[in-house]
Amino acid sequence: MAQKKNELWEWVKALFIAVLLAAGIRYFLFAPIVVDGLSMMPTLHDQDRMIVNKLSYKIGEPERFDIVVFHAPENKDYIKRVIGLPGDHIEYKDDTLYVNGQAYEEPYLEEYKQQVIDGPLTEPFTLEEKIGRETVPEGHIFVMGDNRRFSKDSRHIGTVPLDEVLGQTSIIYWPIQDIRIVE
Questions:
Q1: Domains and CATH numbers, the chain
Q2: Sign of CA dihedral 30, 83, 41, 181
Q3: pLDDT of res. 58
Q4: Residue 81 above 90 pLDDT?
Q5: Cellular component terms, GO, for this chain's entry (predicted)?
Q6: Which of 39, 56, 151, 154 is labelled catalytic?
């Protein structure tokens, strides 16, 4: 009888440790997230399931064009692409991104740009028009969805504080036929 109690106790301890490890990994390192909506089309699709690397931003700041997950003002988590870093001057004209006066290519938008026939994919704007400042504030990033005409992003909600960024995401794990690393 004592041996069965001891064996049960060992199983309970093992289960408890497994639950703690799983919770720790999910809370501090990696977490699943579901894409909700079309704002990142064609890169991400509605209901794609991804892994958020939370450790990525504990080490350093995001890089331009990273896809990040952050807490949005509506108590939702958004998935968007980093366009502007702290101190950057952002402007769009003639469907081209200019950062600090330098034109940047956005190859992830080429598919959509070729499909649009009734004007630019990204309406022209300056950072000052959208957030009332000439540069992205320190400790913030400027984010946009790849589906520029149908994305609620920094043009509407303002810049995102870095402490609201959960992490970077680049791995789609579901649906199975769409498993890939996105850029």
A1: 33-181 (2.10.109.10)
A2: negative
A3: 57
A4: yes
A5: plasma membrane
A6: 39
